[in-house]
Give the backbone structure.
Amino acid sequence: MTLIFNGEQLAKQKALKLKTKVAVYHAKGIYPKVAAIFFKEDAASALYTSLKKQTAENLGIAYQAKAFSFADPVEEIQEYIDSLNSDSSVTGIIIQKPWTKKWLEAVPNGDFSKWWSGLVSHIATKQSHGVNKDVDGLAPATLTAIKNGTWMQDGMVLPATARAVLSILKDYRANIDPDFSYLTENVLIIGQSDLLGKPLYWHIKNLMQHGATVPQAFGEACQVSVAKAQENDKKCEVKLVGKQGLEDIIEQRKSLSDFRVIISATGQKNLLRGELIAPHSILIDVGEPQGDIDLQSCLNKADFITPVPNGVGPMTVISLMANALDLLKPVL
Ligand SMILES: NC(=O)c1ccc[n+]([C@@H]2O[C@H](COP(=O)([O-])OP(=O)(O)OC[C@H]3O[C@@H](n4cnc5c(N)ncnc54)[C@H](OP(=O)(O)O)[C@@H]3O)[C@@H](O)[C@H]2O)c1
């Protein structure tokens, strides 16, 4: 039987814990405040920003949002980011990444990557300003620290979507199968963006390579799993693929059945079908607004599926709030 994950439910449980943490900060006179920037031509960004604002305010985290237009000069947006960097009441800054397609429609023949990195690299990180406000973990300095495996000791946070996926896998272990660990399974990540695929791949790869020296922060259970897998000489791999890489695997191996854990973030409807997966798979669907997984054909074959909607989405919102509090840790 396949267990269908309930993202709203787990996000509510997490929210209760975060609310208590916020109260502790407030009692010490520390007030978390996130400043969000979004682009009004992208309706999805406006919607996500209002959902995040609502969740933040329910927890007692201030959330101020400012809309820009794609037509606004980059320098003007950078100046605004600089003002947030030097505003000591702002503890986290997020730029809601617009859908590339929408941006290209508004600014034809432009270079999206250059535009995006010109903005996100302006967010204060320890390296640039001595203080870290990169609450969504997307600044280049944060991504480099994740790649190098130093993000935690550097006081940085994972991108919220990556944190959401890891929380779901951790919850599966805690509440469903204590023998499961994503560090002792073959893991396939489909979709290689900065938002999820790359940072998640780097992080899991680093943890798998660390073996028994996995940092304590990831929990004793995590250390034990890796040590056990090494004792049994179990070789696990994490693979990151885009369109061509996925086609190559399917052509060479005829299916994706070598991978027990599959995390898919492409936005391609029904990309993952029942005939491609192994029995007892753990399937995490990050696609939006439509899921990547063909639910019907995977039912009763997979052990666990996150649906769309009500899967990774609500967990991403609450993970951003957890990030906002983690950025305050050095203060407390
Ligand atoms: N639930 C959430 O919280 C959340 C958060 C963020 C994003 N998302 C969703 O995640 C999806 C991806 O977003 P993104 O910003 O990462 O997009 P992106 O930057 O456009 O990246 C899309 C990735 O998907 C890959 N891809 C596209 N078609 C494919 C196919 N047929 N087979 C295999 N791979 C394919 C691309 O491969 P190439 O590298 O080969 O081009 C690329 O790596 C979207 O649906 C988005 O809405 C959800």
